[in-house]
User: Which sequence fits this backbone?
C-alpha cells in the first residue's frame, strides 16, 4: 500500500519558518519525481515545488521562489520543504505527491 505522510505544519507568524516532511512507503521512492501542492481555503490547488527523482533538479512556483527550498533524502524515503519568510498567503494545506499518489496533507497557518 502506497502511503505519503506529510507533517511539520503548524501556526507561525509572518516572517517565520517551517519545515515540512513527507515520508513515503509502498513504492520505490528514489525512482519518482516528487511535488508539493497546496490548497488554500476557498481556492483551487496550487503547485508549489517539484524535485526530480535524483534530487538534482528543483522547480518552484514564482510565488515561493527564493523563500522555499525543496529537498529529498532517498535513503530515508523522505522529501522536505523548508519554508522561510512565510506570508499570510502561504496559509494552506500542503500535500505531497508522487505519480498519481497523494498524501493527506499538513496544515500551515500564517497568522498574527
Assistant:
Amino acid at each position: 500500500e502506497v502511503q505519503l505522510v506529510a507533517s511539520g505544519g503548524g501556526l507561525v507568524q509572518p516572517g517565520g519558518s517551517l519545515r515540512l516532511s513527507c515520508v513515503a512507503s509502498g513504492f520505490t521512492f528514489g525512482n519518482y519525481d516528487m511535488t508539493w501542492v497546496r490548497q488554500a481555503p476557498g481556492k483551487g490547488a496550487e503547485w508549489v515545488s517539484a524535485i526530480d527523482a535524483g534530487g538534482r533538479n528543483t522547480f518552484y512556483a514564482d510565488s515561493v521562489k527564493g523563500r522555499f527550498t525543496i529537498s529529498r533524502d532517498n535513503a530515508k524515503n523522505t522529501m522536505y520543504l523548508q519554508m522561510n519568510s512565510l506570508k499570510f498567503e502561504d496559509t494552506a494545506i500542503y500535500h505531497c505527491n508522487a505519480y498519481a499518489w497523494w498524501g493527506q496533507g499538513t496544515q500551515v497557518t500564517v497568522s498574527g
Q: What stands out?
A: The two ends are 40 Å apart (CA to CA). The chain has no helices and eleven strands. The chain has a mean pLDDT of 97. The longest strand covers residues 18-25.
